[in-house]
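To assess whether the prediction recovers the assembly geometry, we first specified each molecular entity separately, as shown.
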Amino acid sequence: MALPTSIAVVFGFFSRLSLRNRRTWLLMGAAFIPILVLLVARAVTAGRTGSAIGPVLFHQMAVPFLFTLYIPLMGLLGGSSCVGDEIDQRTLVFLTTRPVKKSAVLVGKAGVQAAISLGIVLPALLLSFAIGFGSFILSSEGLARLGKYLLAAGLATLAYTGLFVLLGTLMKKPVIAGIVYIFGWEYVVQFIPGSTQHLTISHYVKSLLPYKAAGEGFLMFQLEPSPVLHAAMVLLLLSAVFLVLATRVFSQKEYVLSEPRV
Amino acid sequence: MAPVLEAESLSKWYGNILGVSDISLVLMPGVHGLLGPNGAGKTTFLRLASGQLKPNRGRIRIFGEPVFNNPGLFQRVGFCPENDAYYRGVSGGDYLSFLARLHGASTQKARNLARTALHQVGLEEVAGKAISAYSLGMRQRLKVSAAILHDPQLLILDEPLKGVDPLWRVRITDLIRDFASRGRTVIVSSHVLPEIEAMTNRIVLIHQGQILAEGDIQEIRGLLDSHPHMVSVCAPHFRRIAERFVGDHHVLTIRFDNVRQKVVFNTDNRDHFFACLNRFVVEENLEIEEITSPDDNLQAVFNYLVGRK
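The predicted structure of the complete assembly is given in tokenized form:
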């Protein structure tokens, strides 16, 4: 069977399976936390003239929540589950004893995770922006700014998913390494002078954001951001490289599904 | 005639635990029983034969081709793993349709293949039910149907009758024999000699990761006949089953396990015992949850053979 067809078959089956999974719905619920907060804030400040609580909350709460917490964690849980779930549930054998390339299996499963993440993150961001900014979204400037946020979220989702799919193929317990990366490396590195920041995904994601936080919190920039086009290309390239490496590892590596009972 | 499977000095270990050691084996078309006690190396050998594991030393080929990372080969090979694993939230019909699609079938053809395969193992009526709602025996039958779905030339079955009720044991045995009668090859593992004996008289005895003996079943059969055999039956009405065996000269002891709703028989004639058990189950329409044969006695025979070697 041709590779694209195999990928499509795997994608179709696992997307249906994921939509029935409770974890997917829990993650979807979590993505709407900033929306709820924004709605409450808007309701409380309704009728007050000159209130700019919406944009402030969007920049200081919704954006950090989605870009520094939700998207990386979604990538970690979704990406690492591509192989991890198959090993934990001992179902990998059902896929590897069929006439499909292992790379098709992995790409199909990674595609499902990326699609689900995008399907949650982008609407959540869009709604947050719409609630935070109100009618500004209808202006050309508002649309352009929203487009930049959506682009950053989309590329961040792909890059984090790719990275954690790769970790999932390499490690038995990728979640611990992933958490160390997200909350350790990415956080600490932003305070290290020099070009070390370029060794994180978050640097390129932040470089795509149209609004920079005023020198505090997770989105602080110690260095100049990379140019937008450069950042976008790097994120795309990283996503592709992570996925190619993951397929190579997955194809060659032997996975022992249970304790050896020889 | 070309061999179906060739293993040359095949060794596999997990860290410092030995899986199989220096196995050399050539299997021609037909049914081959892989017999050995738990932990003998049967599952490791079948995992190597199905490309799930890479050998540490030696090589294994099927239809003259290497197995690991050779997906094209699985158009001709069907594999039923030992693990009781399944995708949650999916029905048996959808699961088999998906597998058929992986074999290149169109959506409609995949549905037809799934329906046929489910019919062969008596699951067509529960095709739309979630697999998680199936009993252990039904899940086992589903795995068998997944292995035969694409009508492979080689069928590799790891303990396919584990947890299956007596009636379906007979039907799956017939299915395997029928499959082989069409010129196909079956490699089936078990630690229960009568199961293998019902399918073939060609056996490979495996013990402590090595091939102990290979060939006709009669010789090992004779050895086993002189050893008492233990059979454990788990059923809601286990006392009624026990009642039917009281006074049977071939049943040496009967032991109850009230907590697990189980009765354990010790018999000196397995054939007679299983024939009676099957008859009682059908006559009284008894529900059986599990039949197992603890392999202590088979182990004793293996120890005897090892000593003899």
